[in-house]
Design a protein that fits this description.
heterodimer, A: mainly alpha, B: 6 helices, elongated, transmembrane helix (chain A), zinc (chain A), membrane (chain A), metalloendopeptidase activity (chain A), metalloprotease (chain A)
């Protein structure tokens, strides 16, 4: 019997499913250090999945042994259970299998689908626009709306619309390009992928949508920070903020209605953060946040591997 | 030796410039300055067909034409970039999404208020 371990994992899963993401989503400190906050979000997602599946497994396998490795080994080698196996054990095991399959399946599906769409976009772009000799990975697309984006992957592409080039001066354009290159250099699409997938997998969990929105905003802020580090000019923060405001305002006409207000507040937060920068997170706070992220992963792992309480 | 991507673009440019469907031999002749073998032209055309950019008719020899104009392809791409389907947010990283006119005005105002003294 492993009741205490399963209960502890279930409590942890419940905390990670709602109060913890809600707290981190509301906290003010993430915008002071987006990278540390992004690491915390990844830890929350991973630890949440680990503890809910773990809780179900530990309960379901309880009749076979006193620790998860022992019980798992007993099942794999076909040893019969020490204690009688009840219906709730089978229900827990089935739920664990379904949940694992759903989480990993949706992630894989999302990966395949985005890879396919990216390939099609890249094919289209390579056909429709000439590579610019100055920057081989950049393309100029003829379109009046000021738009810039990058397609991540093995052969990344950076795309600027002619509208964007027309509306921005050289410094602002350099800031936009640096921002997009930061996304590519740090593989931000990989940070986002699990949250996109799990929002699709768990539409009943409001925390999944909240986590996805928070991670998206943090990834943009992180790319802003990284772009600033490489920019010259008298006031790079202001240059980047101006580029954001021009691009956000000018693109409005071409964007369908709906969902815009949500994205809008994130744009505003980016601009405010650039023109009135918050103080950077103190080293001790950084270390504390990273330690919490590490602990979040360590606790469910230890509960799963150590002998039952 | 030009890359396949480069050749595909050149062939598409020819097809877009042509008045109607073109046979592979016609493309080879139009691109004589590149000295392409007919098999190379066919390879490029079948790649383009697999990607859905080119279709052929039933004439003998088969003649090829683009499935859409360059402008239509560009418009389709932009439509997806500017749209908001859930998966697309993972597909590409856009510099900034659009905001409504009111928020755009507020943000411009914020920039003006925080502008350094021009002295």
């Amino acid at each position: 019997m492993l009741p205490a371990t399963a209960a502890a994992l279930a409590v942890l899963a419940a905390l990670l499913a709602w109060p913890v993401p809600a707290w981190l989503g509301r906290a003010r400190w993430p915008r002071r250090d987006p990278l540390v906050a992004l690491i915390c979000w990844q830890a929350i997602g991973l630890a949440g999945g680990l503890s809910i599946v773990g809780a179900l497994l530990v309960h379901g396998l309880a009749p076979w042994g006193h620790s998860l490795p022992e019980a798992g080994w007993a099942v794999l080698t076909g040893r019969s259970a020490d204690d009688p196996v009840r219906g709730d054990h089978w229900v827990a095991l089935t739920l664990a299998a379904v949940l694992t399959a759903e989480l990993l399946g949706v992630l894989a599906l999302s990966w395949v689908r985005t890879a396919r769409t990216r390939r099609r976009h890249r094919d289209l772009l390579e056909l429709v626009v000439q590579p610019s000799p100055a920057a081989p990975d950049a393309r100029l697309l003829e379109h009046p709306a000021p738009v810039a984006f990058c397609i991540p992957g093995a052969r990344p592409l950076l795309v600027l619309s002619s509208g964007m080039v027309a509306e921005l001066d050289d410094d602002q354009l350099a800031a936009v390009v640096a921002h997009e290159r930061a996304h590519l250099a740090e593989h931000h699409h990989l940070y986002l992928l699990p949250f996109v997938a799990w929002e699709a997998a768990l539409p009943v969990l409001p925390a999944a949508a909240r986590a996805h929105a928070a991670v998206r905003e943090l990834v943009e802020m992180r790319a802003d920070d990284r772009a600033l580090a490489g920019l010259g000019g008298p006031d790079p923060r202001r240059t980047l903020a101006q580029a954001i405001v021009v691009a956000a305002g000018g693109a409005g006409g071409g964007v369908p209605e709906g969902a815009l207000a949500v994205a809008g507040s994130a744009v505003g937060a980016r601009v405010v953060r650039l023109v009135t920068p918050p103080p950077p997170l103190p080293a001790t706070a950084r270390a504390l946040a990273l330690a919490c992220a590490g602990l979040l992963l360590l606790v469910p792992t230890a509960l799963l591997l150590l002998p039952a309480l | 030796m030009a890359s396949l991507g480069d050749l595909e673009r050149t062939v598409m440019d020819r097809l877009w410039a042509a008045d109607g469907p073109v046979a592979a031999a016609g493309l080879r002749d139009a691109l004589a300055d590149r000295g392409l073998a007919l098999t190379t032209v066919h390879t490029v055309l079948s790649r383009l067909e697999a990607k859905g950019f080119v279709e052929h008719d039933d004439a003998r020899p088969r003649r090829f034409r683009p499935t859409a104009t360059r402008e239509q392809h560009a418009a389709e791409l932009m439509h997806e970039v500017l749209g908001r389907s859930g998966d697309r947010q993972a597909v590409l990283a856009r510099f900034v999404g659009g905001v409504d006119p009111e928020e755009a005005r507020l943000l411009r105002q914020l920039l003006e208020e925080t502008a350094p003294d021009p002295r």
